[in-house]
Every structure is written in structure tokens, then in C-alpha cells.
Specification:
It contains 3 helices and 2 strands. The protein has 94 residues and is mainly alpha-helical. It has one domain. Strand 1 and strand 2 form a beta hairpin. The longest helix has 31 residues. It starts with a helix and ends with a helix.
Length: 94
């Protein structure tokens, strides 16, 4: 029973991190282009979803080179690190 719960938590964390990384990448791409009016709600949703997390990393690590913002890269690396750490901790509970 406990092993099933730990496996479900591992799967949830892995899927959550993967989907959030995909959302960040989509947010970056949609911020580069002007979307048609019909797709602006999607762009606004991605903004509302990703910008608070990216703003957190911009405050902690104010790393930018002119117009290039490195906070998405740091945010994605932090998500990957969180995924690996959570997986290692949950794996020890087996």
C-alpha cells in the first residue's frame, strides 16, 4: 500500500515538473511572437501560470545580459533539480 502511494507521488511530481517545464517553454515562445487575437487567452494563461515563478527567480538571481533574460533557464534547472531530489528522497522510502 505504501509503495503504491510513493510510486503515485513520484509519478505526480515527474508529470507536474514535465508539464510545467513545457508551459515555461511555450510561454517563452509565445512571448517572442505576436499571436492572433483568438490565441491571446492562451498567451494570457501561460503568463498567469509562469510569470510568478519566473519573477521569483528574477528577484533571487538578477542575471540578464541586455535584452536576454536567463531566469527561465535557471527556473527550468531548478525544476529538474527538484524532480531529481524528490525522486531520490521518495526512492529511499521504498
Amino acid at each position: 500500500m505504501l509503495l503504491d502511494a510513493i510510486g503515485a507521488i513520484e509519478t505526480f511530481v515527474d508529470v507536474f515538473v514535465s508539464v510545467y517545464i513545457l508551459a515555461i517553454l511555450l510561454y517563452i515562445v509565445t512571448s517572442w511572437v505576436q499571436l492572433p487575437y483568438s490565441l491571446r487567452p492562451v498567451q494570457r494563461f501561460l503568463y498567469d501560470l509562469c510569470e510568478p515563478y519566473l519573477r521569483f527567480w528574477r528577484r533571487i538571481v538578477p542575471l540578464s545580459a541586455g535584452p536576454i533574460d536567463f531566469s527561465p533557464m535557471i527556473a527550468v534547472l531548478a525544476l529538474i533539480a527538484f524532480d531529481r531530489i524528490a525522486f531520490a528522497v521518495l526512492d529511499r522510502l521504498h
